Amino acid sequence: MKRTLGVCYYPEHWPESRWATDAAMMRDAGLTWVRIGEFAWSRLEPAPGELRLDWLARAIDVLRGAGLRVVLGTPSATPPRWMLDRHPDMLAVDAEGRPRRFGSRRHYCFSHEGYRAEAARMAGVLAERFADVVDAWQTDNEYGCHDTTVSYSDTALRAFRLWLAERYGTVEALNEAWGNVFWSMDYDSFDQIDLPNLTVTEPNPAHAMAFRRFSSDQVARWNAAQVAAIRTHSDAPISHNYMGRVTEFDHFATGRQMEIATWDSYPMGFLLDRVPEGDTLAYLRQGDPDFQAFHHDLYRAVGMGRWWVMEQQPGPVNWAPHNPAPLPGIVRLWAWEAFAHGAEAVCFFRWRQAAHAQERFHAGLLRADAAPAPGLAEARAVAAELSEAPEVEQAQAPVALVFDYASQWAWEVQPQGAGFDHFALTFALYRALRHLGVSVDVLPPDAASLDGYALTLVPGVLALSDPLRAAIEAAEGLVLTGPRTAVTTPEMATPETLGPEVPGLEAQAVLVETLPPGAERPLERGGAIRLWLEHLEGTATVVERCADGTPALVRSGRRLHLAGWPDAVAAERILGDLLREAGVEPRPLPEGLRLRRAGAAEYAFNYAAEPREWAGRTLPPAGVLRL
Ligand code: GAL
Fold first, then answer.
1. What is the fold, at CATH topology level, of the domain defined by 4-78+134-146+239-388?
2. Which helix (H) or strand (E) holds 177?
3. Which CATH number fits domain 399-581: 3.30.70.360, 1.10.10.10, 3.40.50.300, 3.40.50.880?
4. What number does the ligand 1 atom closest to the CA of 142 have?
5. Ligand 1 centre from 247 Cα, in Å?
6. Is it the case that residue 1 has pLDDT exceeding 90?
7. Which of 179, 246, 273, 503 is most buried when burial is the number of CB atoms within 10 A of its CB?
């Protein structure tokens, strides 16, 4: 497949007389795609029912006339001010019960039927008018960004009660499932059940977890309405641009509704804002060496193979606590890394730096005065390289890693030990695998087959789905579960067996303890267990112990279970041993160097600020090598 580049553009921000120049410059830089429209509602419909689509039609004409292909976004992330007059109760409400206000974006509650219908109407209007001239669609913009998935509004409450009735059938079944006899929390009817905020102390974790599942389902429902509206008029692929480390809704669920998954990659913003245990000084101008790759692999799974980077940072952003300039060459590296992980396209955000409003300090490919910014030369270089380079192939990786959004919610709802976070645990193991030089496929929690994987990791997964359980039973490779995998039921209860309920694993967690920082439990063979430790009994073989004798890693045949969260030293040793046993030779990498296998080729990336040697070659800082 021919990999391509693109850019995000806001024709409504610039005089119409400028559009043709911009379009010609985009083509000249070698860009293929232009994404437009996703925040333009106030100009597409300045008053209820008064549609003004002609300017957008002219903008699309200009862009297509220059040879660009158009991704059109539906504008529902920015409901215009008049929408609030029509639907005063459409705002999301925070956990303290305060409505969020107009004046930025994403100010809507996913449960509001009226606004959902308006958003689907607008998607339909755009699809009907532009079906012939649009090459791909984007629904909304970054669901869940700015903490907007969960809303404690009255409309959410009404919808939650209906959702509960649907899930549990009777209130007696709900009482039973949640264990409401504890603290006399039994209900007589679904209408008595409130949202789990403003309780005196923590709410029942089953109640809180049900609300998290409901909130995720509302996003899927919301998206489905727009997808259906677009589908009525257009066969072009539909996508959504997910935001890095947004985990409040199940991206696999929305992903299945659409053809392509895209995500928005801001490596330097992420480093200072959301990478668990990132080395912020070493990688200040490069971004974390594993964070982008993890998301690339995650969204390849969400998109069922088809994925893009819809927004790629091209220079300093505006939203991290500090916003340095990228290391020269790193914008090129980021693009090539995405392609090596299978991205079909990489689009830069944004074309020209805005002169107004919240993102005035956010770099574009052009400066605010329309002169080229440093990112443009790197985009141009990648475009030139793409036209010469061999195709980037993709193949199944030797190692699989299961990521599960519901487990993220579960451990937020009931952490038991501060800092136990599914994303952070999964990412720590991903990082260890990458240090060892292996490529990884991320799998959804209902993966039905582990065929072809030498090793599969299932860390911190709340409860195994039926398909995954069957896949583990049938797996010929090694399967490593834990810590905290399958020791809780989907309703946040303790299984009768105590767990871990992993097929074939002869071990039982008889006690769980959690460990504060500084109280890590050293392992006999080096490294330590941190945060969480299950005391395992049973006939499974003990492979590793803590220095005090507590089993840390056990196995029954090809099934292994980690009793605790391994630190980086322990994770690399344990995974290195398992890889070797599974026939995959680990290749510990120099600091900052990363590899990605892409079919017959392998790419090397140097995230370090100093040169690195690999395969007899020297990679300069931000260097990329194809082997
Ligand atoms: C993204 C968002 C864009 C823009 C960008 C700035 O999260 O989708 O609209 O705000 O961040 O980095």
1. TIM Barrel (3.20.20)
2. helix 171-178
3. 3.40.50.880
4. 8
5. 17
6. no
7. 246
